[in-house]
Design goal:
Length: 251
């Protein structure tokens, strides 16, 4: 397990220039701990409750307990095998638990369920980049023939090496769309630009882009999918903050 991934399981990151004040992060941590306790009790009372495993898995993931989240998601698949091909949350949990081969396999399975969603293809790329290197991952990018929602066609080309982060962001800024839609597109663009910088070992650039994603109010408030991915951005951003070289004290 890499230093970056291991650091995600530690205590919440330093204040620095984090978009969320310390008090807000503390409140979120308490909410996740309460949710873990609540759904653990529900599972003790009903061990085959798929929904309880799902909810505890999410709370564990948001708290940075990736192995625990993965165990809950695996248990969901055991209890309801039909869920397995479409269980993208399990793929992301595999990634952050350092199980890159399993993560890639999960996203490959999802592609048989949905051959439009380029976000899934991005996560397969990220998983393979960790396991095999960026060039091998780029060579193996999933192919798509159908259109996907914006900004994912452009973001996918970023991972393919045919667009730059600046190109992606400029397309969004110049698009003739409503402000709410622009915020949505900017969230996903900044999130995945940040993750792209991260796999390229450009920590400073990754930090800047992920900070923009975490500061995006639309994503946090928009509902399950976007807010779940907002948590991913937050976790990765905080991991980068914790991995910063320590500045020597003047004392």
């Amino acid at each position: 397990m890499t230093l970056l991934i291991a650091s995600l399981a530690l205590a919440w990151g330093p204040a620095d220039d984090h978009p969320l004040p310390v008090e807000e992060r503390t409140r979120l941590a308490r909410e996740f701990d309460d949710a873990i306790a609540k759904w653990t009790k529900a599972i003790e009372e009903s061990p085959k409750d798929v929904q309880a495993h799902s909810r505890r898995g999410d709370a564990r993931f948001f708290r940075g307990e990736f192995a625990g989240a993965l165990a809950d998601y695996d248990r969901m698949n055991e209890l309801e095998p039909g869920l397995a091909p479409q269980h993208w949350r399990r793929g992301i949990a595999c990634f952050y638990a350092g199980e890159y081969g399993k993560a890639a396999a999960q996203f490959e399975a999802y592609h048989t369920h949905d051959d439009v969603d380029r976000e899934n293809g991005i996560w397969r790329f990220l998983s393979q980049a960790k396991a095999q290197g960026v060039e091998k991952a780029r060579e193996g990018l999933l192919k798509y023939k159908k259109d996907d929602r914006e900004p994912f066609p452009s973001v996918y080309r970023l991972f393919g090496g045919t667009m730059t982060p600046e190109n992606v962001l400029e397309e969004i800024r110049s698009a003739r769309i409503e402000d709410g839609e622009r915020e949505a597109r900017l969230f996903y663009a900044n999130l995945y630009i940040g993750l792209n910088w991260a796999v390229a070992s450009k920590a400073d650039r990754a930090e800047a882009s992920l900070r923009e994603a975490v500061a995006n109010r639309w994503a946090r408030e928009a509902g399950y999918g976007p807010s779940w991915m907002w948590q991913v951005g937050r976790l990765h951003y905080e991991a980068i903050l914790r991995a910063r070289p320590k500045v020597p004290s003047d004392k």
